[in-house]
Amino acid sequence: MQKFDKQEYEEAIEGFKRVIETYPNSYTAIAALCNVGMAYENMKRWKQAAEVYDQVITKAGKNPSYADAADFAREHHRWIRENRL
Fold first, then answer.
1. Given a cut of 90, is residue 65 above it in pLDDT?
2. Residue 85 has pLDDT above 90, yes or no
């Protein structure tokens, strides 16, 4: 998150990907994937952000523990689709 906060998004994405690889079936991985989407949004890489949010929605499925992340991803995906793609 330090890299993200410093707007060093490429480096932040690499860190988030390591988290996802280390904890693949966890809420932490889903949250890290949301952060990857946000990094792409901040870099105005809309298509990549939308693709990542699709992954979040798919991985979250109907698991109630992941509902907040899935809702976040759906909202951001919708906004990108309506305004940037």
1. yes
2. no
